[in-house]
């Protein structure tokens, strides 16, 4: 099958106006190639030429060159136009070309649901929101476990058919608890860890192990009110906006690379408890947005910042 | 003239549907009474009963009790329904009642334009925006002078028919320059001082003299990136939102009570110069909004925070 | 108990700075008085004087006079400062004074949870969101039943311990089905009916019966794309924003008085299915916001518009 | 000059952390290639391979395939890495390759300022805003004339050193007036026409001549309140949001392809005049944003919709 004859394949041409009620999925059959490397002439071409050779039709392409750090980022959504396209063969054939550019890349097949473990404490608003999006298929997660240092949210997880691990923690048992959590992550083969208001500071070693694959939601705009009770601080300061920040964790819990931020107006009549309530909505939305970007391989990490392509 | 007979005055009843094209001003003939005092039973009644006795019809009323600080705030827009209403007589008659509640109050007649001095440096976006709103009457300012430590913006002021004072400043001449600025403020009788990107840190003495009547625009959300070049800091941190904060100045230039905040989404592709450009719009809008609240006597200062009623 | 001696009651004065971690509820012990009447001198005073006489401390007060329609609206949150305050006695004592102003009023005690029936179809995002807010007490609802023309959402209701009524509907059985729904509403004593994506056009008679106490969420900004599949229309038009509108129902299902609206940016890459997904979040938030305003008696209906005080 | 040796050119590697205060322009030396054609395998490759061959380094690349209409859109910002790069030679060499894909393309050199004519009536808020952005270089416009059917805004244009043409119009003289306007557009060689609150409906012939290069600002969200006085309609409807729409004109003045939309919350206390004031800010921002996208060649027109890449 080839388009060299200049023909547009029939399925690309709607033979009638869009019938309302039909929804043609934009991504149901598309693969994603995400890559980054040092800036250098030919970085785009090495990707796009290869896709062409492999008879892959690019449906969405975004690249960005960060002149300030000399780093190049690219993300392509594409649809193979050949029978028997195989991800492994593609990967192996592309690897040597990528190597010439010191390019790191990742290939993601359509319909991939990412193995995920969710860490929570007692507050359930983010968990409730994520499980809803998971249940209706809006976020292509494959949730393997919900872990908490409290027993409270077990029935919520159970209703969604998810295993729940109660791993209590004290300052004394922290190393053992983290080992326990780490074991669950490894045994379930989770690629993503979501801290959905987990409220615990991870040890540097744990942060290190989860670098680039653990997303936290911080209940404040960063930089901003750090430490405990940011909504109380916000009230005392009389801010007119409150916000939330979703970020990859790093050693400094609330200081990792930012993926998404949300904000909402407030006023003097918002007591700390009202700010907390406002914050719940923003936290849910911002965390869900960040996870969506991560799952769609839109987020690139480099030099402590993220590049989010095509969001 | 009295409504005690139960009659609604004719002008309050539109005898036909709103004719499109008519605009009936909501505030052209309304006075404003703004007051605050310690929380105590009767604080509302002392205001509203007096207004009733004076045959003043309240068109908008907002009060707020801050339980956390034990402070009460009230703002009433009203329209006298009697011939010969006089602000001075009203003031004198109300003063002893207010005193019983340790109530501070301010009475503002309709159409009052507030005497204002604007301080600028070289950046003209906020000045340009304010002068436009001044010119079309959107902000009821009576601008008496534009003062700058640079000569650059003279022609902009001149085009609007405004006197421009070039008061250069160095670290050595700061006391003299501030005295000069203070003199202009006093001679023009300005009640309001707007720091429209003035870029100079005022001395504690100057801050003290202008307490509660000088509004600054800070090019960052507060708390947030402090110090120089917040947009560069925002870029390095990879924030997904930038914002601006309008606040009353206090001794710590960028830390005064917040009046208004604005925000706009950005992404990795916004270099510092792009963030600066984004920031210009937010700064203009946020400063104009804060000045509007101040002119309408919506802003109350207490304990380092503002209460903004009915915005 | 009286404050006439000029003393501020001790509990109003925090004797120490706010301890972070404490949350002093702003409304846990406050009553709400909401009223409207024709514009006329004394409308505020009749309310505030009575509250003073009854030893009620007003913690938040908002009034608005709509000059264009000659109508006055007022809402007061207050805290009785006497032992043995009773709503019924208050009501009876205030009624004759209100009558002099042709004033309609409603008194709501603290902690009141409003009897509510929720109508749904198959889509569960709004229901899921409302049940969450109900469960954590963010919305003081007393949900008495979930009614649907489909059986799909029964387990969701069941998990929250709520009765679920499956009332199928066809064009032939519409009158009977509406009678059935009406009966449930009446038997449960529900004061509020929420159409959380119910997808059925109510008959004029049903609309009439539910006037002012049934809130619908429309998946578009109004006015805007009416009729079926507004997200498909939005896609074809290439809009850069999508929104939702929460409103009281009236005879024209999607045209009732607007209570709240929400909006989110989109772009060309949002296919109809993506717009639907974006819409889910906005619909949830906008509906929850509108219900919150209604429960807090902030919404006043007059002449086909709403006035929302102090939101 | 070649990077085939695998070396990253020195200027791409910052040898020190970004010095705050430096701003490295992201686009000062970049060309733009914008193209569209029917969807077909190889559409990306034909562009990116050519850029590689021409030693052009791509700094930002975005492509989008609209599956629903079978159309492909691409935009590349690139920096030639060779001496003596010439746009004309590039164009001539690329044309035959583009032709194979029925690809329309446009090449824009760095620093290009687009010849522009602005049409206004009496309202000056958008003009004032655009002239400010023009003056500080934020919008790379080369404004050749301001045309109005009223004399009022001459001094504003004059202060910016711009020729002002007063072309009055009546229903009788409309054809002659449009001919006059058209003549000015042609004589000045303007590529872009901005209707900055021009308030006149252009004739179909005029719309036809200006297709794809005339941007209008409509003072409402579209679809929405059409016809005269949308802010009055918005007030009567009691909307909680007002907005503005910037779009290319077509035969139906307020119905052309949407480029950008803005929105702001309002409430019952916003009388029509207040909505007009709110609208001014949104109109300015939305129009400026749309013009910016157009100047940066981000906007593609197809089938009555726009695709806006990388905004």
TrEMBL record, chains A, B, C, D:
- State the Gene Ontology BP annotations: 'de novo' IMP biosynthetic process; one-carbon metabolic process
Pathway the protein acts in: Purine metabolism; IMP biosynthesis via de novo pathway; formate from 10-formyl-5,6,7,8-tetrahydrofolate: step 1/1
> Could you tell me the EC number(s) of this protein?
3.5.1.10
Q: What single Pfam family name could you report for this chain, choosing any that match?
A: Formyl_trans_N
In Swiss-Prot or TrEMBL terms, this protein is called Formyltetrahydrofolate deformylase
Keyword Hydrolase listed: yes
Location of the Formyl transferase N-terminal domain: 116-290
Q: Which domain of life is it from?
A: Bacteria
Job of this protein: Catalyzes the hydrolysis of 10-formyltetrahydrofolate (formyl-FH4) to formate and tetrahydrofolate (FH4).
* GO molecular function (one): formyltetrahydrofolate deformylase activity
Give me the reactions it catalyses: (6R)-10-formyltetrahydrofolate + H2O = (6S)-5,6,7,8-tetrahydrofolate + formate + H(+)
Lineage runs: Bacteria, Pseudomonadati, Pseudomonadota, Gammaproteobacteria, Oceanospirillales
Q: Which family does it belong to?
A: Belongs to the PurU family.
The cross-references to Gene3D superfamilies, in alphabetical order and at most eight, read: 3.30.70.260, Formyl transferase, N-terminal domain
- Name its species: Modicisalibacter xianhensis
Active site positions, chain numbering: 254
Q: What class of enzyme is it?
A: hydrolase
Q: Which HAMAP family match?
A: PurU
Record's keyword terms, sorted:
Hydrolase, One-carbon metabolism, Purine biosynthesis
User: InterPro entries annotated for this entry?
Assistant: ACT-like_dom_sf, Formyl-FH4-Hydrolase_C, Formyl_transf_N, Formyl_transf_N_sf, PurU, PurU_ACT
